[in-house]
Amino acid sequence: MIDVLRRRKTVASPQATAPAPDGGDGLVWVSLASLLALHHGADALALQPRRVRAPGSGGYVSPFKGRGMEFDETRPYTQGDDVRSIDWRVTARSGKPHTKLFREERERAVLLWVDLRPAMFFATRGSFKAVRAAQAAALLGWNALHHGDRLGALLFDERSHEELRPKRGQPPFMHVLQRLAAHPSWHNPLRRDDEPAAAAVLLHQALLRLRRVAQPGSLIILLSDFTGFDGRGAALLAPLARHNDVLTVHIHDPLEEELPPAGHYRVSDGRRIISVETGDVGRRERYRRHFAERQDELRHFCHRHGVTLLPLSTADDPLSVLQRRLGRRR
User: Fold this and answer.
1) Helices first, then strands: H and E counts in the chain
2) Distance CA 166, CA 9 (A)
3) What is the pLDDT of residue 11?
4) How many C-alpha atoms does 271 have within 13 Å on its Cβ side?
5) Which domains does the chain have, with CATH numbers?
6) What CA–CA distance (Å, rounded) separates 274 from 252?
7) Where are the strands (E) in 1-125, listed by range?
8) What would the mean pLDDT of 205-234 be, rounded to a whole number?
9) Do residues 149 and 173 touch, judged by C-beta distance below 8 A?
10) Could you read off the pLDDT of 269-301 as tens digits, one per residue?
């Protein structure tokens, strides 16, 4: 069954035509102009961190306590506390000295981890998975920029890994979008899909690079179909989840969930043509179960490690899905 699924991805993928200057933007490729235009929709998103774990400066509250703008709590005075922080009202009421504690306002670094491997250049409805990943990355990046965060990215395919360290301000984010839109993967549509073992290795390498770049307290946004995600990948991602907020955008195509109606289909990737018969009930059930098991494994991992999981179909509008799952800003 795995072989059938892998072959279907390789051969059925609509990669036979290279991106054209007109008509392809938003379907099989993205332009810088289309990513820039998404900043209007990003204003409506309510992308707020559940927790921030590292020092810095900016607009989010971290659990590191000290003198700052946000009052946290009052506790009994202990030797070594700053006398300027004594809460005189509580001290007078209780008859014992108490100290005010504050949470300093912090900024966070946001890392966009965007998968551009061959399996991402596939769709039977809507747009390529890679297009949806780029659009969601732009929306989330614009939203983070509006909050004053530092934006960075890791872009990877089967040949290269590009690291863009988090920087503050709009010009660095413009550079991130430019590198995303100009990535070589968009202009090589006839690449061969990864074998399962090779796909896992590529994913592991990308996660290792992410671990080297990510600083504790970051917001990490993973945009991928997670082809090749296995126990080793989970072991690499788990430490990141312990020290950062992680948002996982799992991108898939409706055909990956279930085979098309019973019939005889001819599919091609521009190199080969094969015939696929989808009438066998047992095969259809095994196919459906295989995808459901992959979904369950990823969902279980995210639940166990406090990772936010957001499914996104190639047939979905990314902005609508993000607003529905993350909420709208009032």
Assistant:
1) 11, 10
2) 34
3) 34
4) 9
5) 2-53+108-326 (3.40.50.410), 60-106 (no CATH)
6) 22
7) 60-76, 98-106, 109-115
8) 94
9) no
10) 667 788 888 888 888 999 999 999 999 999 999
